UniProtKB/TrEMBL annotation:
Entry's Gene Ontology cellular component terms: lipid droplet; mitochondrion; plasma membrane
Superkingdom classification of source: Eukaryota
Pfam family, any one: Sacchrp_dh_NADP
Protein name: Putative NAD(P)-binding domain-containing protein
Family: Belongs to the saccharopine dehydrogenase family.
Length: 453
């Protein structure tokens, strides 16, 4: 079942005047009415039309009088369900940039599902994503609404990066674990976006809610991974890539695990709405080449001192974020409590231009699956891959979100009819990786080597 009726817009950006939303708009405009683009009509939505007008002028400079300024602006508020439902009935797709999602996200998802509209967002908030899946998955399948969160730096580089590493294990080779090492590089000290800091603070208070969600949902399938479970190290030094890393509690590992769980239930991936025979064969070939492994992420640096700084920041957020008074302090004085790492102003344009990220995927496994079954046999193979791109929050995230939107709009018949899914299982077998490589990101195999015993 789906809600019929003409959709005026290909997509609507909700929250385009926010820190990230304005950069998403700027990225969207690159593909509006260009050859072979599915984007012909877009609109902006939010609770403050005057701010959206200013954002549109900013995004179209130095030519604010271009045709892009005729883009409609629609008043919509996440606290007004009727305005959201009216909005969703006018468009094929909502790009939701209104955070924190724990507070503002669910009403938007609900309106999209009720109206049969597709939904993408840029959240990395695990509790929100799992709550949405629990409450809306069945209805979104019925209504034909495809709901995909984490379509930004959280968590597409991790998902596609893991799949890229996994597919380098060919023939009888099998991975056991893949560890992601995230490093941020910049000529200038870059200040983080307040929204990211706010999400991290509330993630601490959401731990109990997340446990409740996980207690009530059905037990998920677990992929069969050859070899023993790896011993987790909180701090790790990877000589080959020259980085120290400390475990990063993020949504990345959870979403990769969810994609692998879905793959164990659907070995050929998720069937599309109305796939061609060629697309079905490509999908089956892609997912047949993916091999499951344990996965985790570490935030990394060449300097051990910097890693201890990350640990200190994590301890501050963990301790103060567990009480309402502590959260008020953190959110009132982000620059002080984050040791200058975050501020309410966010980074400058110069800081954004100077920054980049590298995410290394270090995979350990076996040259032959039979070795993994032997007792006390250590991995004898290592495959290192890397995903690189520009600044994470304001450049890479908009690039990813917009390319996900273009894939969804141009290849809708090849994607699931509806449902709440992680980006990996939805976009893994599409040309999303190729599109990202054409727009400033890279996926590289660094080394494939035999480990000494």
């Amino acid at each position: 079942m789906s809600v019929s009726g003409p959709r005026i817009y290909d997509l609507v950006i909700l929250g385009a005047s926010g820190f990230t939303g304005k950069h998403v708009l700027k990225e969207v405009l690159k593909f509006l009415n260009t050859p072979s683009s599915p984007l012909h009509s877009i609109a902006l939505a939010g609770r403050n039309p005057s701010k959206l007008t200013q954002t549109l002028q900013w995004a179209t400079r130095p030519d604010p009088l271009s045709s892009a300024t005729s883009i409609p602006i629609i008043a919509a508020d996440t606290s007004d369900p009727n305005s959201l439902r009216s909005l969703c009935l006018q468009t094929r797709l909502i790009l939701n940039c209104v955070g924190p999602f724990r507070r503002h996200g669910e009403p938007v998802v609900s309106a999209c599902v009720e109206s049969g509209c597709d939904y993408l967002d840029i959240t990395g908030e695990t509790e929100f994503m799992e709550r949405v899946e629990e409450r809306y998955h069945e209805k979104s399948v019925k209504m034909g609404s495809l709901v995909v969160s984490a379509c930004g730096f959280d968590s597409v580089p991790a998902e596609l990066g893991f799949l890229f590493n996994s597919r380098q294990w060919v023939g009888n080779e099998v991975p056991n674990r893949v560890e992601g090492f995230l490093s941020v590089e910049s000529e200038k000290r870059i200040v983080g976006n307040f929204g990211t800091f706010e999400s991290a603070v509330f993630a601490v208070s959401d731990v109990k809610k997340l446990r409740e969600v996980r207690r009530t949902r059905p037990v998920r399938s677990r992929p069969v991974i050859p070899g023993p479970p790896p011993k987790g190290e909180i701090i790790e030094h990877q000589k080959k890539i020259g980085l120290w890393g400390v475990t990063l509690p993020s949504a990345d590992a959870t979403l990769v695990g969810r994609t692998l769980s879905l793959l164990s239930e659907n070995p050929h991936g998720l069937a599309g709405l109305n796939e061609s025979a060629d697309t079905v064969e490509k999908r089956k070939a892609f997912w047949s080449s993916v091999k499951p492994a344990h996965f985790g992420v570490k935030i990394s640096s060449k300097s051990l001192i910097t890693v201890f700084g990350y640990i200190t920041l994590g301890l501050i957020i963990g301790l103060l974020g567990s009480t309402s008074f502590g959260r008020k302090l953190l959110l009132k004085y982000p620059s002080i409590f984050s040791l200058g790492g975050f501020s309410k102003k966010g980074p400058s344009e110069e800081e954004i231009k100077s920054a980049a990220f590298k995410m290394w995927f270090v995979g350990h496994g076996y040259s032959n699956e039979s070795l993994a079954a032997q007792v006390n046999t250590k991995p004898d193979m290592e495959i290192v891959t890397r995903v690189m791109g520009p600044e994470m929050g304001y450049v890479t995230t908009p690039i990813i979100m917009v390319q996900c939107a273009l894939v969804l709009l141009s290849q809708r018949e090849s994607l699931p009819k509806g449902g709440v899914y992680p980006p990996g299982i939805v976009f893994g077998a599409t040309d999303l990786q190729d599109r990202l490589q054409q727009n400033g990101m890279s996926f590289d195999v660094i080394s494939k080597s035999v480990l000494s015993s």
